[in-house]
Amino acid sequence: MSIRLPLGRLASRRLTTPQPISTATRPATLPRVLRQQQQRAYSSEPPRANNPNKVKFWPFFAIIGLGTAGYIALANRRKGTAPVPGGSQPNTPTASGAADAAGPVFSPKDVTVVFVLGGPGAGKGTQCARLVAEHGFTHLSAGDLLRAEQDRPGSQFGDLIRDYIKNGLIVPMEVTVKLLENAMADALRASGGRTGRFLIDGFPRKLDQAYKFEESVCPARLVLFFDCPEKVMEARLLDRGKTSGRADDNAESIRKRFRVFVETSMPVVDYYERQGKVVKVQAVSAPEEVFAETQKRLRERLGAGF
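Structure tokens predicted for Uridylate kinase:
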């Protein structure tokens, strides 16, 4: 059996829309969350009630803050131990980052060190030989020590030194500094005393070598710098190469050595010049004239009886 409603009543039912419940007649039992949603439907303010699904960001901020504080503390500690060019200060950290807590092996009160610098072929060896003969210095050539070490039977550094010299590169400073220290100690033992004067030829060739030597071996008194044009030096080296037998006395190696000297050794000269320790001598003239000028300049700095 089917029940049929009058058409008018059916239409009235279809056209009638539900009326919203007014707040006055709304039951008190309406859930609180539903009432809050209705009250805030047109508000941009977010609900203040606690939402269990809401992401809490404060732990992330706390972690970021702790990480930043830790990084700053680490950076400050590293900054406090960063290498500082110390010149003659014995306990200053070296350029490689290690400090020599014991200080230099030799005291500048007992040992006078004069670094002798100049481009390859500037005449350093010739002038040092004259100073040794007439003024009693001990001449130590970093290059000669390295070449002797590379030829010494059983030397663990022989191959390394040979490759560096052949390619016009600078041998690692730890090797060179140790060879110089040993040579100075041997010279003092041979003389039977604690005092001595040393001309260290061709060293330091880089700033880190200067820092390392002064911190671990002895501070330098002066830097004797022989200034000479490259064309003059190249001609001298090529002429020397005819009889020297040195692997680096050829045009290619000579030009490499010039570039290395300008890039690495000239900053050493500039560094000591700012300290007022550089004695500059023009080395273009004949060896006798250069030596006369060298003696004159050294008397001005070391005294008449140097």
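The CA atoms of residues 168 and 257 lie 5 Å apart.
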